[in-house]
Amino acid sequence: MRYLDVAADLRSEIGSGRVGALPSEAELGERHGVSRVTVRRALEILRDEGLVDSRRGSGWFVRSDPIRQSLGRVTTIEAALEAAGARPDRHVLEFAFESAPEAVAKDLGLAVDAEVLRVVRLNLADDEPFALVTVWLPAALGASVSRADVERATFSDLLPLHGVEPGRIVQTIAATAADRAEARRLHGHVGDPLLACRRVTYDRSGAAVMVSEHRYPARSTALEVEFPLSTPGGTHG
Amino acid sequence: MRYLDVAADLRSEIGSGRVGALPSEAELGERHGVSRVTVRRALEILRDEGLVDSRRGSGWFVRSDPIRQSLGRVTTIEAALEAAGARPDRHVLEFAFESAPEAVAKDLGLAVDAEVLRVVRLNLADDEPFALVTVWLPAALGASVSRADVERATFSDLLPLHGVEPGRIVQTIAATAADRAEARRLHGHVGDPLLACRRVTYDRSGAAVMVSEHRYPARSTALEVEFPLSTPGGTHG
DNA sequence: CAGTGGTCTAGACCACTGG
DNA sequence: CAGTGGTCTAGACCACTGG
Asked: What is the pTM of this model?
């Protein structure tokens, strides 16, 4: 898809530190040998990712905002950090098969004592920790995943390689205070506010394939969620 | 915008109970007197909203597993408390017209010194505070809202009564530590972790009509969000 | 004013579906 | 096979920006 190529090009340019105004749509079209419509399609993808924005009559610009994650895409924290010029890194802190904790077993539809792979990983940007992630996979799926795999790639990149077609994701979001282990690993202090997300990922058939818990220090991130339309009634707003 | 008209038409048809296959893009184009590209643009908006999906070579279909509860989920905090048998209550702590703070003015598309209505409200369940909400409305809209209105009803119930057709909502979610005022009002302690949400509500025409900030003590709540499909690449999962 | 993004059109080619 | 969605093009008109 040409529009994906154009988007990837621009994304990596932005990731390499490009700031300010982008060339006009017309010029981008000439440069990439595509029509203006295709350029726009690419730019709108990047806009959805929060990387660029446009001003009518003026042009397209690289966004300088603090890191945001568009949850319509759940996927961009690392990408956004990368785009902001930060050097991403991952450290696998734990990698072990164990008995599924009750809540995990329930979410994965397994027996309580079923075996699961548990991975704890620290995500860094410029050597600064910004997310502590714990992932549980059913043993059958975890068996084909190596520690090196986990160090190298994201789980959402890994799953498709192991025959899982990712489907919907249900995320629960809360605030917690950092405990001793979290504080140590995130280079913070006990009691620091953390954004705590718990995700259950399903495959296209509707079966749960992964449970993950994410801890973000308050300083480092904000999630952004967009709802197309409000439904009547029942809000506390 | 014609594509918004087409999207609105289809949305209301689906809202009225339409199920199964939609007419082909070509036929929808003829029916609405627009080109196929415009039809697709409308359909892709509805896809983003989780209302429809397509199969290449086959057609577009109304989704039967409604993904729409994403917002329903976020708005059910009070409803869930009620369902759990808790007695809900609201106290209006502040109700005043004032100069818009810079960030609010920007989100509402107002001049920095424009007048806005600022309301601070505490939501309780069984006399226990569970949410501290600050709402800003443009003065023109706020002028028709009384303090009693705000005490009695939610803003999402109020807006339609004042001619606002609610559209999309963009929510930013973060964790913070309670400051002195927040701690006092939420019956907690300074430094307690809070889930901090900032919402911008738009009307159907895309104009921002309300900005709100929500503080939930960690003990009381978690937001649940569902995403229809994960997108490839770039996650930290 | 020239240049820009926002929208829209008519037409094309392709891969795919399903009879 | 005819019909469908996915992608792409060249061209157009408009509102808006900013010198």
From this structure: 0.60
